[in-house]
Amino acid sequence: MHEVYINRVAKFLPNHPVSNDEMETYLGKINDRESKARRIVLRNNGIQTRYYALTGSGHPTHTNAQLTARAIEGLFDEHFTAADAELLSCGTSSPDYLMPSHAVMVHGELGNRNMEVNSAAGNCCAGMNALKFGFLSVRSGNTSNAICTGSERMSSWMIADHFSKEVENLKQLEEQPIIAFNKDFLRWMLSDGAAAVLLERMPRGEQPLRIEWMEGYSFAHELEVCMYAGADKGEDGRLKSFSDYRSEEWLSQSIFAVKQDTKLLDRYILTKGVESMKHAMDKHGITPADIDYLLPHVSSHYFVEGLYAGFADAGIEIERHKWFMNLRDVGNVGAGSVYLMLEELVRSGRLKKGQHVMLCVPESARFTYAYAYLTVC
């Protein structure tokens, strides 16, 4: 088995930062009304700026595949070119198409060479699942290198026009033409962007990071769906797929909108996160003293104090000065968030040889968690 090193990290954030006051200019107003949820959600999530692959009038500027390819291009130079890549492993929760897969579309954008590709589907953990596929490939000797990515282009899912038919339908039913909170909530939470890492067997560069281990946990066997799209949720907690609705209902009920059961989120996201984090640390025999930087992907600053308290109660208190986050400035980029945090930490110059970095990614879709433990070389 080979050691695996993250030798390079690169990112691509589209256009320019979008402030809280500008958001509805880009996304539009549903039924020409300001969202009642917007200020409440933004006050709790603590995000001040984010990036959209949109013009100010809501027209797309990049596809998800293009965002990802631009990030990957930042890994290349005269010492490692696109032609040297052996494996491309990409994770996202917002692919441009139902098919073909996201990774093959990114490969098409790169246009580099015949190579193995892997697409990791899901939500926030998709980026970590893509990383683990690359990690295991290099570690096993299947390939000598791997490019792994996490990306999102959620803005195009959230523009007001996608909800116009539902508003018209509500008016016809003589109901209040206001989009339900479980749909409106996420319009003010999600952002666009991409980042990529280069994995190799040998360390090189100024500050390579050795991946010591990766772990993943799913609680879908005991918890129902919390975040979903392309479906609707019944009273029994089961999902009904878009393919089982009439095509006119796709628009009249905004079936493809991203939705979140915020009550389930609040009840389980932290408790299961603490439980899985402790399990991973115990399995590998590490304590909080063995973590110099914690990179937690949290969707909202609302959860930070609760997560810290949960760790403390579980006996794995990680001091707050060790937490490294960029949610306030970059926003919640889902599968790309942990990559973007890592890129910023590496670029900051703070890391020192021998330090340890813990990547911590929760996914609320059906409560999945992923972890990686890195050593600065």
TrEMBL record:
Q: Which GO terms describe its biological process?
A: secondary metabolite biosynthetic process
An MF annotation (GO) of this entry? acyltransferase activity
Residues forming coiled coils: none
- This protein's species is Sphingobacterium allocomposti
Alphabetically sorted, this entry's keywords are:
Acyltransferase, Transferase
Record's Pfam families? ACP_syn_III_C
Annotated ranges, domain Beta-ketoacyl-[acyl-carrier-protein] synthase III C-terminal = 281-360
Specify the protein name. 3-oxoacyl-[acyl-carrier-protein] synthase-3
Superkingdom of origin organism: Bacteria
